[in-house]
Amino acid sequence: MDGSAGFGDLLQQAEQLTAEMDCGAELPKVERSIRQIMDAGHRLLTRTAQTSQDASDVKASILLGSKGFDIPRISQKLEGLSAARTFEPLEPVRDTDIHGFLRNERENALLTVIEQTRKNTLEEAEKRHWDSLVNEWEREKQKILNALIGTGHDTLDFPQEQESILGDSINMQGRSAMDNVEMAYARQVYQYNEQIVQGGIRPSLVDMFAEVGNKLDDDNITEIWRMVKLMTDVPMATSSSIISSRSTQRMQTAFVNQAKKYLEQSYHKYITATVYGNLQQAQLGGVPGTYHLVRSFLNVRLPHSTPGLEDGVVDGHPVWAMMYYCIRCGDLNAALHVAQQAQQNIGEFIVFLQEYMKNEDRRLSPNSETKLRLQYRRSVRTSTDPYKRAVFCIIGCCDFSDVHSEVAEKTEDYLWIKLSQIRFGDDAESEEGGSTQDTLTLPQFQTTLSEEYGESHFSAYQQPFLYFEVLLLTAQFEAAIEFLSRIERLRCHAVHVALVLYEMNMLALSQSIQSQLLSKETGDPSPMKRLNFARLVMMYTRKFEGTDPREALQYFYFLRNLRSPQGDNLFMSCISELVLETREFETLLGRLERDGTRKPGAIDKFHSDTHKIIAKVAEDSETKGLFEDAVKLYDLAKNPEKVLELMNKLLTQVLSQPPSPHSSKDRLKQMALSIAERYKSQGHEGSRATTGTFYLLLDLLAFFDLYHSGSLDQALDIIRHLKLIPLSLDTVEQKVSGFRHYADEIRRSLPDILLATMNILYTQYKNAKSAGRQSPLVGRPGTTDDGGKESFTSYLRSQAKALITFAGMLPYRMPGDTNARLVQMEVLMN
């Protein structure tokens, strides 16, 4: 019962509490969802922040108002300044406000100028930035391409043929990256440069290289140099422009005549070899001369007269065939002998042939040429005798479209026929009643071969010597060299052909060494190309400059008259890059002996003022951050001011480091001591300020070495004698005023000097405190003696206090922890 009553009472009380809550006025019942509660909280937070901001604005207005500032007016001014930062034109004012209008116009004009200047500045900065990046990338790309080419990998090349070893060459494959052929060429280059440097008679470079080609067991290489020798045997250029000189009638005529001469000599050798290879069938006989040689050749080539050939025979062979092969061998007298024997059959052609022979330029007079062309168009063009058509086209320059495929069986025959038909100067112009198709000029023929036919027509990579011959014999020297240089096993020969043409002032050079290997400049006559000669030489030497720097130096000497994009002498720039990459300082630049004399290097023979070259290498080393190399090079170039300047920078970086064998500090220390010893004994021309800083750094170097080794008393003696920092309060101001006279290297080292000195004083203080000893320095400079002795610890504290005072008065911002550490140790000493 009691339990039931207890629960009933509890229920009654609970219902009473519920009723009171439902009807209470102070705490109304609120029913909200979670989202409603969150929204209400956000509204309260926003209202609170706004109230806080308003309160801040009110407080700011009260504060500034009490100082006399008008807040609304200041806000308007600030908004005006904010708008002006955008450099936008101001708003126009009313037309009646003259003063406001003028002021507004003036401000608008100023803003316009500022905005335009800012825009131009940004554009110019961006342009220069991109130009710099492009130039830098071009240089890096050049180095990468040269390095790739120098490795000897060429996807377009074919397996290298086995080459014979020259009888007088030395097999240096164990250490050298050059093969026997390259070494043989390099030997000739060395001998040629020796003659040039010594001022003797300039030897024939083409003969020297041809000598190398003759020693190789390769007829193609021999023919290359025979072609080059003939094509360079022309009148020297008189104009300053190589392109202008090569475009003159005189030079082009010489090129064509020399090309024909080579082709005629080659064909004569071919006929001779054919005849002597078939003596029984040829029936040569004992009479010398081209006429009998051609007759014997036709006995092998045309054993029976071909039916349908016109105008009879001579010695059993067609007259026109006999005449063609005589002309093809370059013997016009033999051709005239044939014509005289068949004079009744060939009519007045013998007159044309005699006139053709009399003219040195191998041309008929305009009247005779017109008659011969008329005869060709009327009857000869439809003749069944291919030799007759070929002879008429050669003598009278008829029908340039006919390739004479029945007669010209090889490319050399086609070249010879077309070269014989080329016209020059006024003769190349269209004659009255004629058309432009009646003439063939050398540029037209060059364009046909190199652009219309091109490499694919001649199967250039399968027959590289043939395509090189086509280009070289048509005076397209640059294209011929560039093509041959693409083939790894022939690149060596291409480079040396380029050297010959460059030395003879016959090579069209690119205006920039950053151009492609073969390029065309605006304004050059078509199809003239330019060769980047410097790039070709540097690509070639990239292969062996690491193992054979002396040989690379010989090739760089050819670049002495060229300029780099920065305007520097290209020879000096190449030497600098070679030295820095190979690090053959002593081999190339020489060595400085102990007595100060310089042992000559490889460059001494090339330049009268070798110090300029060494200085150039030193500058490049300094620019690249190779300061130790730059010190040695400046020392070699007799520039003590730069030596001391750079040594001061290097010593400052390692001054406070603890000594360690074979460390950078040990290496720099030995270098500095050797320089100091030599300069002290022999003298130098460095400035007093730089020299004083250098010797002061050497003393500080000794101080830190003693400090790190534990010789604290000796280290403190050095500091005391240097008088760099105060060790007594009465010298603080003097040292502070003298601080501004020290170099930056000393100022940067001062925090470490102060810390090391304070450490020495603190260590001595602790030792003295523990031992309870008196000062052993009584009576020495820097101590105070009040009629007896002063405590050693007091003396050390006074020195520490002087250091703290000095550090605080210095007009120099030291590292943040330096003062804290100084104060900490000074406090520990009290």
Question: How would you sum up this structure, described in words?
Answer:
- The chain is mainly α and 830 residues long.
- Among the domains are: 69 residues; 168 residues, no CATH class; 59 residues, no CATH class; 121 residues, no CATH class.
- It is 63% helix and 1% strand.
- The chain contains 36 helices and six strands.
- Helix 4 packs across helix 23 and helix 29 runs parallel beside helix 31.
- The longest helix has 53 residues.
- The chain is elongated, with a radius of gyration of 48 Å.
- This is Nuclear pore protein.
- Belongs to the nucleoporin interacting component (NIC) family.
- Its main location: nucleus.
Instruction: Sum up the overall morphology in one term.
Output: elongated
Strand line-up across the major sheet: 1-2
The level of helicity is 55-70%
- Secondary-structure-based class equals mainly alpha
By DSSP (H or I, 4+ residues per run), the number of helices equals 36
Poorly predicted residue ranges: 150-174, 429-436, 773-790
